[in-house]
Queue: 2 jobs
Job 1
Amino acid sequence: MKENSSSTLIFEFGDINDNPHHHVVETKNYHNSLSAREMESLTAICDTFLPPLSISDDNSTTVNFFRLSASMAGTPHRLGGLISRRMKHPKIWLMRLTLWLLSTWIGCFIICGFASISPNFPYFHTFSQLSLHQRQKVLHDWSLSFFPILRMFFKSVKLLTLLVFFSQVDEKNENQTWKAIDYPGPDPQFNKHHLNFTNENSSKPEEQEQNLFGPLIKRIINMNVPRNVAAKSLREAGFSVSAPSKTKISTNPSLIIQCDAVVIGSGSGGGVVAGILANSGYKVVVLEKGSYFARNNLSLLEGPSMDQMYLSGGLLATDDMGLVILAGSTVGGGSTINWSASLRTPKHVIKEWSENYGLEMFDSKLYNEALDVVCEKMGVQSDIHEEGFNNAVLRKGCEELGYPVSNIPRNSPADHYCGWCPLGCKDGTKKGTCETWLLDMVDSGNGVILPECEAVKVLHDAKKGTNRRRATGVSFEYYTKRGKESCVIEAKATIVACGAIGSPPLLKKSGLKNPNIGKHLHLHPVTMAWGYFPESPFGDSRKSYEGGIMTAMSDIVAKFNESGYGAVIQTPSLHPGMFSSLIPWKSGMDMKVKMQRFSRTAHIFALARDKGEGEVKSPSNVSYKMAAEDEENLQQGLEKILKILAAAGAEEVGTHHFEGRGIEVKKGDFEGAVGEESRRGLRGLNTEICSAHQMGSCRMGVSEKESVVNEMGETWEVEGLFLADSSVFPTALGVNPMVTVQAIAYCTAQSILGFLSRKKKC
C-alpha cells in the first residue's frame, strides 16, 4: 500500500486479471477529494484520537508506539479517500459539512462551544488550533452530547480513524503498531498451509492448480476480458452465447447468455440452489458482485480483507450510525467469512413459524430432511480439540457460576484452531459454499460463476392470460478496461440470493411493487463486554485473536424454553482494527494503553433475537429501531457477561458504553458496579452495537398483503422469480442463521426443480 502523488488512498486487493486462472493481489488507490479545509479538521481529529505521546520505558517498541500519531502513519489521507470514494452512507455529506465547519472559527464555536474560545487574541479558534487537551475534551463531550447529530459524528470518526490506523498496511503488508500490541498480522501458520496445499497431489498440473487456486477455478469465468474471449469461455462451459438483438433487448448488452436458471448471489442461499439445480442436470449461471478469493489468494490482512470481501468494505451502518453492519460480499458470501457456527433452526422458532405464521413447510418432513442434508454436507460437528482464549474464558466463567454452557456445532473439523476465518479460510476446511454446494455445481459440469458482476435488474414480461408477470432473466454490469459493460442472461428461472440488505433494492429496481419489500428487517443486535487478563487463567500463552472463533455458548438469558426472545452469549473475532474501533475511547493515552492489552483482553457478546425492525431503502441506506424489550435483553446479557469474565479471572472488566468505566474486579462494590454498567442505555448512540446477521426484509408468508414470497420461495408478483436467502425469514431467528438459510434454500430448490420440470413439459 502506498500513497500516490496526490496523497491518495489505500488498500483494495485486486480484480481478476486477464488470466482467469490467476488472481493477482493488486493495490487500488481511492482518490482523496476532500478539500484542504476538510483535511485540516480531519487530521486534527485523527491526531486527537491518536496523538504523539512521550513516555519513559526501556522498551523502544513501546516508546515508538506511543510516539506514533495518526498523521505520522498517513491515516488522515487514507481516511479521506474512504470518505471520498468508498463510503456510501446517506449522511456522508453531513460529515463533510461538519469537517468544513470545524475549519472555520464560527463553525468551531457553534459545534464545540466555549471550548473553542481563549482569553487571548484571536479569542476564537478553529478546531485544529485548539490544544490537544481542549480537542480531547471536545471529542469526549461529543460522545455524550444532548444532540444526536454530534454523537453520530463522534461514532463515525472514532470508528473510522481507529479501524484504519490499526488495520492499514504498508508495501510490506505490515503495520507499525502490530509488534507493540503483540499481533503477528496474517496467521503465522498461513505459509505452512500454502506449502502443504502446493505439494499435495501436485503431480498433475490440473490438480496442482486446484490446490493453489481452489476447486472452483475451472468454472470461474472472468468477464474482464475481450468479449470474444468471455464468450468462448462460456461456450466451452456448455452455454449458449449470442450477440444482442436491438429490437428485443432495450439495454443494449454486449452479450446474451442463455441458461435454465440464473442465481444472483453465491452465499448460503444461492450456493445451495445452484448446486442442487446443476446436479439435477440444469444449466446454471451464478452471478456474484464480489471477487473470488481462494486459499493462496487470501491475504489474511484485516484491512485489505474487509475491503475486498465485505459488503461496502465493512463500512456499512444504519442511517443514524446506531448499528455497524457486517455482511459478506465475495464468492461464497457470508459462508466464506463467517465464524463457523452451525446451529439448527431452534424448535421454538419452527413452532412459531409453522403455527403463528401458518408456514407448514417448517414443520414438514422436507424441512427436517433439509436440516439433515445441509449439516451433513458441511460436516457439522461439535467436538473441540483445543479451545481459543475467548471461548475458554466464557466456558470457565460459566462453569464457575453454574451457568449453562454448551459446545457450538461448527462446519469445520474438531482441530480447526483458526482465528483468521473472518478473513477467509486458509485451507478450505471450513465448509462454506465454495467447498460444498458450489463445488457440486462445478463438478457437475452444468454451472459457471461470474464474479465481479452485479445484477442491475430482474427482467420480466406479462404472462398471457393472467395479471401476473413472469421472470425472463437478469441484466448485469461489470467493469473492464473499456469501462462499464452490460450483459443479459435469459433464464427459465431467476433466483435472487443477495442477502437481506441486497435483495430488496434489486427487486425494487426491477419494478416489483409489493409494499413489504425492504420492510421488517431484523439485525440481531450485538453488544459486547471485555475483560483484561494480565496472566492467563489457563497457564498458557493463548492470545485473544487465536483459536476457533465460536466453540462455546450460553443460553442463560436466551429464553429457549419460552419464546426465544432473549439473548445468546457467544464470543467474537476481533483483530486490531475492529477491536480498537469498538473499545471505548477516553483519551489518546487511554486508547494506546488499552491497545497494548489487546492480546490479553477477552471479549464476549450478547446477541438478541430482536423484535425491533428496520427497513432497507437502498444498498447503503438502512434504518433500524431497537425495541425496548431488545435493549432489556441485551442489558441482562451484559450483566451476565461481566460476571462471567470476572469469574474466569479477569482483573478488570467493562462494556463498550461511552460513559462506561473499567471495573476492577477485586476492589469496591463489584456487584453494584456491574449493575450500574449493565443498565446503561443502548439506544442512544452512546455505545457500539453491531450486526453480523441480517434477515426478514422480504419475508415469507401465506398472504401477499403480509409477505413478499410464498412457501415455495416464489414472489407473489412475478412467476419464476424466487428468493433464497435470509431475507425470507418471517422473524428474527435468534441464533447464527447459516444452517437455517441453507435449509430454506434446499426446500426452495425443490420448488424450483418442480417449476423447471413443468416448464420443460410445456
Job 2
Amino acid sequence: MNMAQNSQAQGPVLSVRDLTVSLPANADRPHAVEHISFEVFAGQTTCLIGESGSGKSVIAQTVMRLLPPGVSPAQGSVHLLGEDILAMPMERLRHVRGERMAMIFQEPMTALNPVMTCGQQLDEMLAVHTRMSRAERRTRILDIFEHTRLPSPPRIFESYPHQLSGGQRQRVMIAMALILKPALLICDEPTTALDVTTQAEILKLIRELQRENGTAVLFITHDFGVVADIADHVVVMRLGEMIEQGHKLDVLQAPREPYTRMLLAAVPGLEPVQREAVAEAQPLIEVRGLSKTYTSRKFFGGRKDVHAAKDVSLAVRPGETVGIVGESGSGKSTVARCIARLIDPSGGTVMSQGEAIEQAKGARLRAFREQVQVVFQDPYRSLNPRQTVGESIIEGAVNAGQSRAQAWARAEELMTLVRLKPDALNRYPHEFSGGQRQRICIARALACNPRLLIADEAVSALDVSVQAQILELLDEIQRRLKIGLLFITHDLRVANQICDRIIVMHQGAIVEQGPAHDVFSRPTHSYTRSLLEAVPGRGFLFHGATA
C-alpha cells in the first residue's frame, strides 16, 4: 500500500460535506458557496481553484471559523479529524486553531502584527498552546526559523515584519503555522505576489515540511502552474458552485467542463510566440546609463548607499512592447519610476523626442508626464474611493487644459475602448471587480493621449481569465493607437505572451536583453535560465489549453 492509499485508508483529515454559506440580504447572490463537498487526506494537497468571487477563500474562512459578520454556514458540515468544526465551542476552537489546523494568508504584511517582533509573535503561540519555559520556546522558534530557511534566525527573531522582504515574511508565516505541527494547513494564495524564484522556494518548502509531518494541505490559488506543481486533488469553483473535481491529471489534462477548459485556455504558455516585427522608428523613450542610488544615514554617523539601478540603457519604439523581468528588488519598478519621473534618477539620461527630460521641471515636466502614463499593480489603491470613476478618468485631462465636456466625451470613448459601458462613469471604484477596475485605470492612463504606457505589474494579482482579457486589451489598444508599452512583470509566462523584447534585470543591472523569442528559447545568462526553471508548472502540458 503506497502513501496515498494508506492516508485514505486512515480517513480524511478534513471532510467538507454539502456546505452552503449564506451572504447578507443586500449581496449580489444569496450564497457565497452552495453544496460543496470534498476531502483532504494526510500527506496530500487539495487545491481549490477558480476566479475571484468563486468562494475559495470563503471555504477556508469557514473551516477556520473566521467568517466576517453577516456571512454564516446555512447547511452542511465541516469535520476536522472527526470533530465538527461548525458546532465546536469557542474554547475548544481556540485550542484546535494552531494545534490541529493553521492558515497561511495571502499578504503576510497585513497578517503579521506590525508592532511585535517576529519572535514575539511565535512566542505568543507557544505560550498559549504549550507549557514550555521561555528559554525552551526561544530554542523552538530559532529551530523552526532555521528549518524554514530564514537567514540568521536570531536576527529574524528580533526583527519587525517591515524589516524583512516579502519572501522572508511569508517564511515567518509558514513557521508560525507549522510550529505546532498541525494536521491541516490552509494556504490562501500564499505566493501570488512573489517573484518566480521566491515562489518556487516557498512551494518547495511547503512540500518538504508536508512530507516530514504528514500534513494535509488545502491550497487556494488561481495559478494553474502552482496547481500542476503541488496538487494531488483539484476542486474547480465558479460563483460559489463546484464545477468539477478529481485527480490533478484528470482535471488539468482531460477537463470535463467547458468552464475548466476556458480557464486552462487562458493560461499563458512559455512556448516561443512569433510576433510581427516592429517598424524601425525614432524611440519614444531612450534611456542611457540610468542609475538610482538611495543613501541612508547611520545612527552613529556614516552613510550607506543602495544602488537600486545601475547603468541601465533601453529604448521603446512606437507600437513596441518592451518587458522588464526579474525578482523583487531587481530594480524593475525603480527604472520605470525614473522614466516616468515619479522619482528623480541619480545619473544617466532619459530622452523623449530627442530632448533630455531627466532634470525637467515645471511646465516642461508636466508636458512630458502627459505623454508617459503609468498603470499600477493595485487598481483599488490607484483610484480615489471618494471619486466616481468618471471624475478619476477626466482629472488628468482637465488639469492639462481640456474642457470638462471634452474630457467627459473622451472618457465615454475610452470606456467603450476598454469594453465597459459609458454609463459606468458615474459609479464608484468599490462597485467594480478587480479586472474592471484595472480596465478603468487603463482608460484613465489613456485620457491624456500618451505616447508611452508603463504597466507596472498590472496583471499580477488577477485571475488567469481576467489576466488574459487585460493582456488582449492592451495588445489591441497598442495596435490601434501605436503607443509604446513598457511592461514590468515577474511573471515570465505573461511577458512571453505580450512582449516584443525582453530586458532581464538582477540586482539593479541588466544582465540580458533581446527579442522575446530569443531570450525565452535561448537564454544566454545563468540568471535568466534560473528564472525560467523556477516558473511553476513549466514542464506540464495544459491539454485544456488546446481543447
